[in-house]
């Protein structure tokens, strides 16, 4: 469909081989993100972040004091990954799918991103989120090429 990005259609692409049942680590995030075309890794304030042509798509995002206050006893501990999504409707769908894995804080109200508990997500689900985030942030031509070459048929 002309003018519509793959991430807006909820299109899933083939996953990089990995263990479906294992929990994810920062090494998995790094491996998946850097396997995508034109992705770079940088340290922002001592935290890892991955960009496609200078557009942030996933990043290490520990909870801040305001997040801890807002979440109260529900505040998770462990590693947290920030992930861009295509739009706010996609965000709501992801949050509803498994609130024990994906969540948000008031800081992200009105912003198309979710927070992911890295120690609760499978490698397959992690890869889907990272690839979808990359597709949403990559230049259209680059994203379309990737989808064309990797889409499940």
Task: Report on the architecture of this protein.
The protein is an alpha+beta fold. The chain has one domain (24-144): Aspartate Aminotransferase, domain 1, CATH 3.90.1150. The protein is 37% helix and 20% strand. It has helices spanning 6-9, 26-34, 65-71, 88-97, 123-137, 140-150; strands at 39-44, 47-52, 55-60, 80-84, 102-103, 113-117. It has a 6-stranded antiparallel sheet with strand order 1-2-3-4-6-5. Helix 2 (26-34) crosses helix 5 (123-137) and helix 5 packs antiparallel against helix 6. It is globular.
Name the CATH class.
Alpha Beta
Please report the distance between the alpha carbons of the first and last residues. 16 Å
Q: Could you name the ranges where pLDDT drops below 50 across 5 or more consecutive residues?
A: 1-6, 8-20
- Sheet with the most strands? 6 strands, antiparallel
Going by helix content, strand content and strand pairing, the class is: alpha+beta
Radius of gyration: 15 Å
The oligomeric state of the chains shown is single chain
Q: Tell me the total number of β-strands.
A: 6
- The rough form would be described as globular
The average pLDDT value, as a whole number, equals: 87
**Count of domains:** 1
Strand order in space, largest sheet: 1-2-3-4-6-5
Which CATH architecture?
Alpha-Beta Complex
Name the beta content range: 15-25%
Layout of strands and helices, then pairs:
Elements: H1 6-9, H2 26-34, E1 39-44, E2 47-52, E3 55-60, H3 65-71, E4 80-84, H4 88-97, E5 102-103, E6 113-117, H5 123-137, H6 140-150
Antiparallel strand pairs: 1-2, 2-3, 3-4, 4-6, 5-6
Helix pairs in contact: 2-5, 5-6
């Amino acid at each position: 469909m002309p003018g519509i990005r793959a991430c807006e259609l909820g299109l899933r692409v083939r996953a990089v081989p990995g263990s479906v049942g294992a929990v994810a680590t920062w090494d998995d995030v790094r491996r998946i993100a850097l396997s995508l075309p034109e992705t770079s890794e940088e340290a922002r304030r001592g935290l890892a972040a991955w960009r496609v042509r200078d557009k942030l798509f996933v990043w290490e995002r520990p909870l801040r004091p305001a997040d801890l206050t807002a979440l109260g006893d529900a505040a998770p501990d462990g590693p947290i990954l920030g992930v861009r999504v295509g739009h706010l409707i996609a965000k709501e769908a992801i949050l509803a799918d498994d609130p024990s894995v994906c969540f948000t804080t008031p800081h992200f109200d009105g912003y198309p991103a979710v927070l992911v508990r890295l120690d609760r997500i499978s490698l397959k689900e992690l890869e889907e989120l990272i690839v979808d985030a990359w597709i949403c942030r990559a230049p259209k031509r680059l994203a379309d090429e990737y989808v064309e070459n990797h889409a499940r048929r």
